[in-house]
Fold this protein.
Amino acid sequence: MAGLWTGKRTTGVVTNSALAPGTVRAHVLAVGLSALLAAAAYALRPVFGHSVYLLGAPVLLACAWFGGPLSAALATALLAAAGLWLDTFTGLPLAERIGRAAVFVITGLAVTAGARVVFAQRRAAAELIADQAEREALLQAGLEIVADALVLTDEGGVIQSFSESAERVFGWTAAEVVGTSFSRLMPPGEDAALTGDGDDPDGSTRQLTGRRRTGETFPMEVRVGAVRSGGRRLFTIVVRDLTSVQAAERRNEELRAQLAHVWSAHSMGEMAQVLAHELNQPLSAVANYLRAARNMIAKMELRNDDLVDAVSRAGDQAVRAGEIIRTLRDLATRGGALQKPESLGAIIREVDFIIALMARDAHARVVYDLHKGDDVVIADRIQIQQLIVNLARNAIEAIAKYPRRQLNISTHVDSRNQILTTVEDSGPGIDPSVVDRLFQPLASTKPEGMGLGLSISSAIVENHRGRIWVEPSRLGGAAFCFVLARAGADDELSGRADGVRRR
Ligand code: ADP
């Protein structure tokens, strides 16, 4: 209503500011009206006689209503003077005329005072509305630039407002959905999930399924907050379209699966090489002994003991070859994706055979320093073995060309009661060109390196809610360290492990 007087657009009414209260125009109009009335009263004085002041009443009220207190005061003064003069024609005694004029002035002053109060209220209301309009405009401008959709509903779920981003997400225009139920933005039945089991949705965040105008459904995160407005309880519903987030997560998972596949194919290939190399020795020994046995038999110059010895040595070597095959096959197939309490030392000792083979080829020395007490962690044995073999292989490759070739593998309990495993070497340390992206796929300085080993290693540690990093080793090369929570301390540590930054 105040917009009527300010000329501002408020509740949709555009008003005329020509007669705004307190303006010169309003006062001129008050004076003009009063003069007009005085002239009319003069002309009609025989008709009105003693009631001349009554004529002034509507003018006075009109001036007060449209022109404000000053106009009313001006009109009072003018009309009182005119009335006093016009009364001379009625033949009343002077004292009585002054009395009538005084009553008119008092009434006029009362109207003026009333006008003041009314106008003060109107101005305050106008300012309030202008203020609100400004805030609404600011809020609206803010809401339009955020990517999340914002929908305002009443307690019954009826949409009160629908932001531009909501229009983009759902495909409906505000005009189409305001006044209808929020449930039309979800597939049938899903709205029950929004209100939960009758709990107050205020402050809740839920992952639900949304429905666009086209009927297409999509995953969305819905945050609900309650607000009070004009005695009503409203809900602001912030909707985040998770379509792209989930697609990215899916892609990430696919990439990881691909990486894991490539890596395991890669490491199986390496195992096959080791296997071929290792089996070569016992099998050629078997062949030699059997050839010797055949020669002895052919020449029949045998002494019984020699034949038995040759054949039993051949048998021993065949058993050794079989053991090598069994160990490798066992390593590749036992265990699985299940994490369960395992001794870290035992896990490492099961692969020392492979590490020894790799180290022997590189003429490297391997030193173990494994924690002797309780070292039980919740782990997938095969995954942790892949991790250790991978770190050891990298270390051995790094030291291969250096005169001092040492690899240390140690475990101990750190200050946070976690098990810290360190695989460190006397090599050159990490090349600065890869140090920043060491744990990312395809970071490699080797001519035929795939740059996948450390990326998979970090994924394995992450799977175990642990942390992996690299630091300079006291042996001169790189020290790869990772921590795993001890089996008993899992709950206590999970919060910390999740919060740490992986390098
Ligand atoms: P790849 O061995 O196929 O290159 P990795 O992920 O196993 O992939 O390793 C990435 C890179 O990290 C290696 O190319 C190498 O430059 C560096 N690196 C890894 N371990 C060591 C180490 N112990 N000493 C020095 N550099 C290392």
In short: Confidence is low (pLDDT under 50) at residues 1-18, 331-336, 490-503.
